[in-house]
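Title: Prediction job returns without error message
Component: structure pipeline
Severity: low
Priority: P3
Assignee: unassigned

Description:
Job completed but the reporter wants confirmation the result is attached to the right record. Sequence as submitted:
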Amino acid sequence: MKPRRHFLGTAGCALAWTAMAAGKNSMEFSAADVADNLAVIRCTAKGEEKAYCGFVAIMGGKPYLVTNQHYILGSDRITFSSPSGRSIKPRSVEISPAHNLVRLALAEGAGFKMAADVSMGDEVAVYGSNNTKDAETEFRGRISGLGADMVEVTAEFGEANGGAPVLNTNREVVAIASYTRESRNHAMKKGTRFEDKTRRFCQRLGRIEWKPVNWKRFNRKYGVPYRDSTTMIDNVITILNSWAEGPLDKVSFGEHQDKQLSSWLESHNAVVANSVDIGDGRREFYADYSASTEKLSSLCQTQARKLALLCEQRDITEFLADELDMQAALLESAAEVIDRYGASTY
């Protein structure tokens, strides 16, 4: 599994300020000053709406709305607007084959310029808005790590800022807020800046290859399975955690329920209900319980096989192939755990 955590985004983009440890940041503009180039992305899937951050940048002389690709994957409906509520109407969609990025061409309008030079120690600020109360976010810091594709920053942005622009003192885009990584404690890290710390990484945009796609077709073929598998994995993890705490308790998924597991959930909880008074039917009960776990394992394996077949499609991107392959591996591992658990119920 890749050592990263995608930003799933939340509705809590609250105004915040973080001073960098190396000294005061001297940015001479605020989130309000750049709000016109920020974007609010509202995605609805299965009746649930989530809000994410994005921004408008001038790339190759043209304006594009840029954000992280997985935000919009699997969405049934997507709307774009400025923090002030002005509607933004994209004309076409381009995805990065190798990275978690998408850009949507706009007919006209201003946007952030792209930074030509990036250096270690440069002052930066992460700005993002999802149009909630105190929507503009403002996190400041410096570039603490520099690579060909990524930069690491000390600006302490969080999940609500995923997809937001990382700007330099000239209001130019250095990168896009991408993911965080928890720094594990290790003897070699003791006394260093990596000890017991969350590290924040941002994708640089200068060398990105872009591929035009028919979004409805692409999303239906790859985005919807990606979304459904994400929900399924979350549900399966909930089940395993529930079994760890109470093996014979009824299982509940909460609001986000995978349709493939709905019928299984009902039948499994019916089996669990019979555990109240097992009596002479102990052997029969455990046989039914084991059969229920086998069914769940089979559902995981079936979904893993479907994802594996998608990974072999000619038009799939490297980024999505990696994502779906990782999901398939998680479901296969879950199936193995479920099989061991079912065998232990006798």
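Comment from assignee: result matches the submitted record. Residues 214-343 form one domain.
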